[in-house]
Amino acid sequence: MKLAVLVNEGPYQHQASDSAFQFVTAALAAGHDVMRVFFYHDGVNNGTRLTTPPQDDRHIQKRWTSLATDNKVDLVLCVAACQRRGLVDDGEAKRNAKDATNIAEGFRISGLGQLVEAAVEADRLVTFGD
Amino acid sequence: MKLAVLVNEGPYQHQASDSAFQFVTAALAAGHDVMRVFFYHDGVNNGTRLTTPPQDDRHIQKRWTSLATDNKVDLVLCVAACQRRGLVDDGEAKRNAKDATNIAEGFRISGLGQLVEAAVEADRLVTFGD
Amino acid sequence: MEDDENQGGEIKKFLYVNRRQPHGTVYALESLETVLIGAAFDQDVSMLFIDDGVYQLKKEQSPDVMEFKNFSKTYKALEMYDVEKVFVERESLEERGLGVDDLLIDVEVIASADVKALVDQNDVILSF
Amino acid sequence: MEDDENQGGEIKKFLYVNRRQPHGTVYALESLETVLIGAAFDQDVSMLFIDDGVYQLKKEQSPDVMEFKNFSKTYKALEMYDVEKVFVERESLEERGLGVDDLLIDVEVIASADVKALVDQNDVILSF
Amino acid sequence: MGTLNIVNKSPFEKRTLDQCLKRIGEGDSVLLIEDASVSAVLGTASAELLLNASKQSKLYVLGPDLQARGFADATLLDSIESVDYEGFVNLVVTHDRVHSWL
Amino acid sequence: MGTLNIVNKSPFEKRTLDQCLKRIGEGDSVLLIEDASVSAVLGTASAELLLNASKQSKLYVLGPDLQARGFADATLLDSIESVDYEGFVNLVVTHDRVHSWL
Predict the structure, then answer these.
(1) Is D75 among the domain residues?
(2) Does A23 reach chain D within 8 Å, measured CB to CB?
(3) Which CA distances in Å does A7 have to A30, A125, B91, F48, F73?
């Protein structure tokens, strides 16, 4: 079955991103197609490459990036949410005259239309939040 | 009177940072000494210079930066929280081998001891969170 | 079955469930942004306001006193986006001492007992 | 008065109030980090666990199944940091079907009605 | 003067307000801010809870948060006093300690 | 099969579980995850609420969240079935839609 996932909270502060990751992992293991994970609200904070979590803790961003690389899961950060929270790729840096980027490998920034599209195309949408 | 403020949530997602800002502004106007605003948990996300909020909305980071510049309020981001969430200054970039920084003017990254010290030295500590 | 229907790329029915106050968090604003973007997709859209979500439709909001964006006028524009099915739960209004006269727009008031039927009619539930 | 006392740089009394579960959010872990750092300041520290905060002290936590850090053993180290005043509210335990035997460490059980007196004895309340 | 207790969540959404009120007493005050502010309005399901609390504690609500939510002209519960941010600062200064119920 | 309702907050902290349960019915299911998982344990103040709900809806709890919180060996309410993440995925697939009560 084709599944889409929505993540509304950032890493570590709430369990949402962890629950979503475990769910996606289990769905892939069961042979389902996870077509997209859309990160909205504080969820976009999962996509920064600048975190350095404690050595004895999980690395939430790297886990997501591996999922994108190994399983071709499309990880999309909402552009409007990124602008409010300071998530920047090359294109956004140019458009908004920012002097640095912080987006991690495997994530892309795009519009809210990608969420609606995922909800239309997937058989089920599962939301994780606060 | 000497006041200290603790902010536990990031910009826009929760009202905490707004309430704290309005409180600090009113305290300064009443002639009190706001010795420090300590940003903990997701609160550290207030200190990124990479946000581009909508033109018709408030710019939360810039408001805090002005407060630091105009009123010498000490804005401190908790280093452990910064590492979990990807807030980086020059020192942190060097220590953790990060290729970019995102900290905004007027903020500094320091240890949790700065919170305890503020609570010891201030007459009152006021916390804003979720 | 419902699955076959959806896989054909036909029109899906979206229900946006709003359960939070307008200004304590950004969810209400960002939920509304999703509705407006979603309208461009030519899907069948309904909005449901329950629990503290009914406060989103309260008249006379002045978020400018807190330097917040006043997005409450956007609810009045929903009709222009062909979002015409706006439901509000009676019990949620009553618990908060509110009536339909307190609301910014015309809505269809439903009973708590009717919420399930509304949910059952839709394919996708978005709740922030 | 209390103010004069504090301004002399004397020892202040800190009360950490813990009201959240251990793993659904990071607050419990980051609260504990504050307690440990605070202990270096030679202040008088008490911890109070009420509402869902009592779950922080539950025995047999296995957060590793969710790949979370297992910080529950840190509560056992509190004594080494001279944090010896650990209070748990009886009513909070009872509402959750828990007793002192379910807890990781020895605590002082107090009644809901005694919480105010404890708060009144402290200068700084930190609640995450 | 006792403790200034700050509550910022709606009693219709979270149990924070009940949890705070049952643990405070004589000399303590409660300030309702952010999403908790709406509970100060007359005629809601939380009125009785607040009226009971007002018998031993002083209750305040942050006016700007009520205005933002469309209740600038609403009638408030008798026992509740509306303050602005200046009043908020005064409450902090005149109480012995502040307890934010998060 | 009806709607899979997901609740992730403790009924002792937020009203989400009550708010969900009073609006669902025959054919619907509820999955308790994260901080809501603890309410599945026998002997808590939320037991009656869940027992009543179980008369018309099927109730599940996410086992890993219970284990994380120290309830791997706890006795659960009779009416609640524990599932792992594989079971979670199965529930999503076998219901017509998912409603996350946030």
Answers:
(1) yes
(2) no
(3) 21, 11, 31, 32, 31
Residue F97 and residue C123: Cβ atoms within 8 Å?
yes
CA distance A79 to chain C (A): 12
A78 tagged catalytic? yes
Query: Do the Cβ atoms of A12 and D24 come within 8 Å?
Result: no
Q: How many residues does chain B have?
A: 130
| H-state helical runs in chain C | 2-7, 27-39, 72-76, 90-95, 115-120
Instruction: Label residue B95 by pLDDT band (50, 70, 90).
Output: very high
Chain C residue closest to A124 (CA)? C124
Residue D121 forms part of a structural domain: yes
Q: What is the pLDDT of residues D56-112, one digit of tens each?
A: 999 999 999 999 999 999 999 999 999 999 999 999 999 999 999 999 999 999 999
State the chains in contact with A (3 or more Cβ–Cβ pairs under 8 Å): B, C, D, F
From the candidates A76, A78, A81, A88, give the one annotated as an active-site residue: A78
pTM of the model as a whole: 0.96
Residue F8 to residue A15, Cβ atoms within 8 A: yes
C40 — pLDDT class (breaks 50, 70, 90): confident
Q: Residue C67: which CATH number?
A: 3.40.1260.10
Q: Looking at the domain covering B2-128, what would its CATH class be?
A: alpha beta
User: Which of E10, E12, E67 is the closest to C65 by Cβ?
Assistant: E67
Pairing of strands D13-18, F3-7: unpaired
pLDDT(E26) > 60: yes
Structure tokens at D90: 């009886």
Distance, in angstroms, between E20 CA and closest chain B CA?
15
Residues of chain F contacting C30 with CB distance shorter than 8 Å: none
Q: Which residues of B are catalytic?
A: 78
Domain-by-domain residue ranges, chain E? Answer: 3-101
Residue E90 tokens read as 């005064």
Could you tell me which of A37, A49, A130, A39 has the C-alpha nearest to residue A80?
Answer: A39
The tens digit of pLDDT for each residue in F26-67 reads 999 999 999 999 999 999 999 999 999 999 999 999 999 999
CB atoms within 10 A of CB C70: 14
Cβ neighbours of C101 in E, within 8 Å: none
Would C76 be classed as within a structural domain?
Answer: yes
CATH class of E3-101: alpha beta
